[in-house]
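G., the chain you wanted modeled:
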Amino acid sequence: MPSFLSRLQHLHAAAVMADITLPLQAYCASLDESSLPKIVQVCSGVYFQGSVYEMSGSEVCFSTGDLIKVIAIELQSVSCEDVSNNDKFELPIHHTGLFKVVPEQLPYSTVEEILKLRPLDLESSLPFTFTSRTKITIDNFTLSPGKELTVRCIKRLEDGKEYVRCFIPGQQDTSAEVCIPLSTKGEFYECESEECFTLTEIMTSSCLRSRRFRFANTTKLQQPLLFSPVYQVHAIMNLRQNVLKFPSTLEVDVVDITDICTADFVTPFSLTEILSQPDENFPAVLEIIEGPGSCAMFKCNWLSGLKQHNKVIFHKKGSTALVLLSNIKSRKTQQYFLVSQQYGGRFKRRPREFSSVYELYAASVNASGLKVSVTRNCEEVEEEGVPTLSVGEQLEIVRCERMELPKAKDDKEKQTIEALLCYRQADEDDDEEEEGVKREEMYLPMYMQGHFVEVLADNKKYKLKDLGKEFSLPLDVKVVTKDSTLENDPLATANLRIEAAMVEPVIQASFPSSPDQCFDIPSKWLSMTVYFTKECLPWPRDQPPKCHVETVTEVTNIFLYEFRKQATADVAPPPRPPKRDMSSSKSIKKSKKKSKSKAERTVPFKEFNDLTLNCKRRPPAPPTPEAIEVEGPPVVPRKPSTTVTTAGKAQPNTYVQVRDSIKKVPLNTAADMDSDHDYEPVEVFVEVVKKAQENVSFY
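Predicted structure as tokens:
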């Protein structure tokens, strides 16, 4: 059996002998996406430390003899070559400029030839204009050379011959029409057409891509341009197992060997592509080309086995109903779980807690007849419409309405807000309530904060799938019976919240070492690349094992964040409370500030400043004379002093005598009226206080 290298040499020699080598750029430009995949061999390349040299994740060169299987091409841009000087530049595929077809300088020998070589199909390119450098004679009618002929349509006459109906412009607004047979011979040339094309139209037409163009709306660049598409080529190699991506502008020559190549190529698949495979391909053994790596979304045992080059069995694909659970935050660590609705445990409902009226409203939308109990007293705020609530009161949520706030003095119109209409249940000891009397209605503003707990009269045990059918989410539950099929049930005896329910595409998989212990891979949330191997399944033919599917998968808070970002629609924030009228309080503060400033001006600034010149610590402001005369300062006990008299007694406290000193100051009313210095009594007060200051400065 010939070696692989000798087979490559044989293929390379056959390609060279056939002389069908093309530059990679030209080969990709001639490809039709519907004909893919194609297998090519590199006939001339660059050797650089092996078969393929990789730089920044992009394949930049190949070696002679390499086999490449092109599986897809993706148009990236357009390469433009100036025919006059061979300069090249690139334009984005969505370039907004328009281009005109440059007429070919080569002559056409017949009218039929010029029709067949139109850049578009004949019906789309009509009308178009051409000229003849030779004289044309049709029956008794002769056309002189140089006349412009505009083709209007093609006709088939009674004699079975096909003709083109042409319009001939004449002098002084005269014109004529003539029918010219397609078989007419001569020397015909194209005339420039006024029709314009975009880059997208040019690249999607094989006829247009072979023509030359010039810019239609500019006079700066009128040289003919040749357009060539620049693709990103998606390919695989028989020596590598991952998908290569490289530009079609690599300077290598290739030859198409699709029909004669017998090499085996590994076709990589993503998990999304695995879902599109037919059911007949499963179960199968696959090898992991690229694993999920350090996936931060899942915390499970089977994740560590999904590594590169490891084998995995894909039993089947499909969709399964999953529930997203989270444990109550009272635990030390917050945990989240993706749980299949086939989970065998039993749940009981737990009352939900609400911290605002808006949360009550959101819960009542999904579940009518919601009843709650008040768990904390709430005082009434009349201007904001907040009522009084007491602990133990039960409320039944009815609907959302608008309520009027009490009208303020400065408001011309009453303000209305959104509120929640509730029925407040009367006390059982109220004997005055008669049967048939309506329950008390009350309104709770949407912005009101409070503390409520759901009232439940249900003590039934539910399966997980039944909870989703009978109740709306989110829902607080507790596991009262664990799943007996699980060795260690992470949900056992846990207080949980059902966050959401979903239907996810999954792939049921297991490892060859334990093919009956299966798990579901959520293909939407896990990224990995695999390929189908030809290995046999690790069980007898037509005797598949009885699979036990893991029903609980722990996920991280990153998964919860991504899930909510994709699944939750934008919800408007809860309403804010109305702004309070602060004008009255501002006026009160302003008046207090004014009165305070007047009181400070009672003592002249210079004298008041002198009080603190010799003080180590600045004392508080002294009281006014009027306040001293009415009440007097309190008597402060004197601390023991280091200076003692000969009698062994402390010196008398002079500060206590302030009140008496001020009383002994004579106040002459007449003198006050005649004197220009009406602050003389204050000077006396300042002197007395200054002496007192010296005595108490060391307290």
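The first helix runs from residue 4 to 18.

Shout if anything looks off.
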